[in-house]
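Predict structure. Input: Beta-lactamase-related domain-containing protein, 484 residues.
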Amino acid sequence: MEEMMMRIKNVLKYFGVGFVSLLVLGIIAIVLSKSVRDNTYHVGTIGAAFAAKHVCSEFYLNGRSIDEIFQRDLMAVDERTSLFSAKNDNMNNAIYTNLGGFFSTYAAYRDGLGCTLVHDMNIKEYQASAVRIVRHKKSGSEHEYPLKSNIGNTVNGVNFQKLKQAVENSFYEPIEESKQDTRAVIVLHRGKIIAEKYAPGFGKESLFYSMSMAKSVVATLIGILVDEDKLNIDDIGLFPEWSDLSDQRKNISLHDLLTMSSGLEFEEVEAPGTDLTTMVYRSSDMAAFAANKPLIHKPGTYWSYSSGTSNLLAKVYANQFENLQQAYQFAWDGLFAPADMVSTIFETDQSNVFDAGGSLYATARDWARFGQIYLNRGSINGKRIISEKWVDYVSTPVKSAPIGIYGGQFWLNKGALNDNGEMVRFLEKCPSDLYFALGHFDQIVAIVPSKEAVIVRLGWSTDPNNPFNFGEHICNILSSIEDK
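Output follows.
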C-alpha cells in the first residue's frame, strides 16, 4: 500500500498540483469531467512516449547513459520528466518508461533502423519485422572530399579570425541556468571544412537528432524517384482514403504535399491532445493519421507547415516499394551510400514507414555532406544524386507561403516586397540565396551558393525564453566569407 501511495503521489506531482487537492479534484473529475480525464491521459501518455523514444535512440545509437539523457535532454524540455522512470530491457532491446507505474510505454531498438514506439504489438513480434540493409563502406578515407580540412590554412576569401570567433559565439551560454546547448558546428567552404567544433560529450562519431530536418531528406528521396520518372509532382489520387468521387482530397497533388499546401487540417502544436503530439506519440501509423484529416482549404491555395504532410510524403515514397527492405535499400543505394552519409539512421513508425516528420540520426559531418549535395547542385564525390532541376524546385518559393519563406520541404530566404515596397526576408542580414533544412531546437543545415558555403548547427535549445538565435549566428559566420 505504501508503494502504491508513493506511485500515486509521483503521478500527482507530475501534473503540478498538491496531493490532497488534486486527489479530490481527480475524484470529481472521474465523476463529472471526461475532458479532464482525457487531458490527464494525454499528458501522461505523451510524456512517457517522449521519454521512451528519446532515451531509446540516444541510449542505443550514441551509448549515452539513461541518467545523462534525462538530466541533459529530457529535463531541459520539461523538469517534470524527472518523475518518469526508464529501464533498459536487454532481452528485447527496448526502453520501458512509466510514471509511478502508470502510462507504461515501450520503444524498441532494431539494428540499423534505430528506435520506434511500439503501441499495439508484442515487442518480440515487432523485433521480428527488422530488415537487414546492405550497407556499403565509405568510398574514401576521412580525408577525402568533402571532408578535407582547410582549418588553419590560408584560404582566399575567408577571414579565419572572424570565423573562429563567430563559431565560438555559437557555443556561448548567455544564461547559465538555461542553456542553449549548441553541440556541434561545421562550416564547409568550397567543399572543405574551414571550421568544426563540438561541445564536451559530443564528437565526430556522435549521431545527431534531425528533428524536422528529416523533411528535407525525404524530399530528396522523392526527388530521386521523380528524376527516375517513377513519380511526378502533378500526381494526384495519392491515397486510398481519398478515393471516393466526392472526396476533394483526391485532388491533392504531390506538389501540394511537398510545398505544405495540401489544405488538410493539421494542428502543428506541441501540446497534449493536438494533432502533432497525437500523431507522433500515440499513432502506430503516422501517415494514416494524417491522411484521415479533413480538407479545410482548396489544395494549393493555402500554406500551412505540417509534420503530418511530411509523413504523407514518406508514405508516398514507401508505396513505391513492396516492403521496408526495398524502401530502405533504395534510400541507402540512391542517397546515403553515394554521398558517404554512412552514419545515417532513418527511424520509422510502427508501420515501417520513415518518420519524415522528424526522426533521422547522422553525424555532423554527414549532415554537412547532405548540404554539400545541394550546394553542388545535386552531386557529390563526382556522383549525381538528384538533378539540377530538383535542386531548383525545392529552392523556389511556393506562392502560397509568406515572404518567399518556403519551397519543397526546405526553408528559404528569398524574401518578398511588403505593402510599402520594401524587401522583407526571413533572415534579414543573410544572403537571399540561402536556403536550409530546419529542425526543432534549432537544428540547421544551411546552403549558401553565393558564399560557396554549407553551415551545420546541431544542439538542444529548448527554452523559448532563452532561444538560440540561429539567424544571427548563421549570418555572423557567413560575414567571415566573401561572396564568390
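The chain has a mean pLDDT of 88.
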